[in-house]
Amino acid sequence: MASPSRPSTEWKAAAAARDAIGQADAPGDEIAPTIASVKEARMRTQVGIVGAGPAGLMLSHLLHRQGISSVVIESRSREYVEHRLRAGVLEQGSVDLLRETGLGARLDREGMRHEGIELRFDGESHRVPMTELTGRAITVYGQQEVVKDLIAARLDAGGTILFEAPAERLSGLDSAPVIHFRHQGREEELHCDFVVGCDGYHGISRPAVPDGVLTTYERTYPFAWLGVLAAAPPAVDELIYAHHERGFALYSMRSPQISRLYLQVPADEDIADWPDERIWAELRTRLETVPNWTLNEGPILEKGITPLRSLVVEPMQWQRLYLAGDAVHIVPPTGAKGMNLALADVALLGDAFAAWYADGSTELLDGYSRTALRRVWRAQQFSWWMTSMLHRLNADDPYEAKLQSATLRYVSTSRSYATSLAENYVGLPQV
Ligand code: FAD
Ligand code: DHB
């Protein structure tokens, strides 16, 4: 790999960036804080990051802690990314990462630690005691809360996140990368040593790799999830994954006042066909299947439909472009792995860039894709397995339905099979 300049401290990098744009040094900021202040000048940083989701923001945070400068380019507004309703389950490893990097305070106050989940099927409830089986736990804490905490930490540390700045293309990836983006009606350029594409499946980073370099492995499912956020106190302390002949349902939560619920629906379903009363009726049918258990209902605050898919693109790197999170892999949400995988990818990248900027070592950077893909494929298999076990599959195939029942009964009665579910669900420390 050709060696661009390797400043030893973040301060030096920030100073170099300001030199490049002709700005005076200002303690605390890593690079020109707003594009308005750089005018036509060249903007430079060490690592250019596309996308301010959990992956891009966490990477920027980790790099800052290693004294490496970065700029995050995000197409949406801050308000939008801080309120985008998505995943809610943090694995133990993700919680540890947030705590170890100084982001544990609100998580520890507001996050809900869960030591088990319930599997509900055939009119019975079965608890999988995750902590008893693995010594580890999960924490329910909304993805948008993680995003808010990360944005606050970056901005407090003088970091630069450019919102409403869509990246349009990448160039110079073989030696001197540039992110070309629009901001406030102008075409802008960010010059960097490396680009990390954290811009999700619909981003521009992955398509910047020439045809024929990447291999895509993919599976689509004939169903989607209808998700609702409801102002209703959760009726339970732990998540319920329910298998029902009408389809899968999931009972989750965001706080002692707010429930988060999901229903399996056909892939082409229109949310307009689901007035609130129909949603509650279907949730009652699929969840009120055990004695003395009723759903708590309340006003629906938000609802939407998310298609399910499995996808991996390999390798996760090309030249000076590294790809992380949903930009290179998608899992169906049944295993609650999407956000956790995104954080695990950038934890590897944080260490790899730290090693490279410290002494020019390329070992971790070169091994990034191979190492990350081991966890990615473990999560792919687990998410596919949970999805296949819990959803209503092909209605015309009674053999498949019988296999599902056998699997559910086995995982509910065998300690070793339940341990396999639990260790994947809470997240394997090493893969
Ligand atoms: P993202 O969070 O998608 O972040 C990518 C960022 O890049 C976005 O902010 C986007 O605006 C930005 N971007 C895109 N293109 C550009 C561009 N050209 N220029 C600049 N910025 C750009 N997982 C679960 O486990 N459970 C769930 O219930 C669940 N629900 C989901 C619902 C939806 C609708 C979606 C899309 C995903 C859901 N996921 C869920 C998956 C989980 O949220 C993702 O795995 C996680 O967001 C991945 O983080 P990321 O940082 O890789 O990508
Ligand atoms: C939630 C989402 C999931 O995909 C899951 O498996 C569990 C919980 C949630 O949004 O709370």
From TrEMBL:
Q: Which InterPro entries match?
A: FAD-bd, FAD/NAD-bd_sf, RIFMO-like
Gene3D superfamilies xref list: D-Amino Acid Oxidase, subunit A, domain 2, FAD/NAD(P)-binding domain
**Which domain of life, per UniProt?**
Bacteria
Every copy of the FAD-binding domain together lies at 44-383
Presence of the UniProt keyword Flavoprotein in the record:
yes
- The name under which this protein is listed is 4-hydroxybenzoate 3-monooxygenase
Listed A to Z, the keywords are: FAD, Flavoprotein
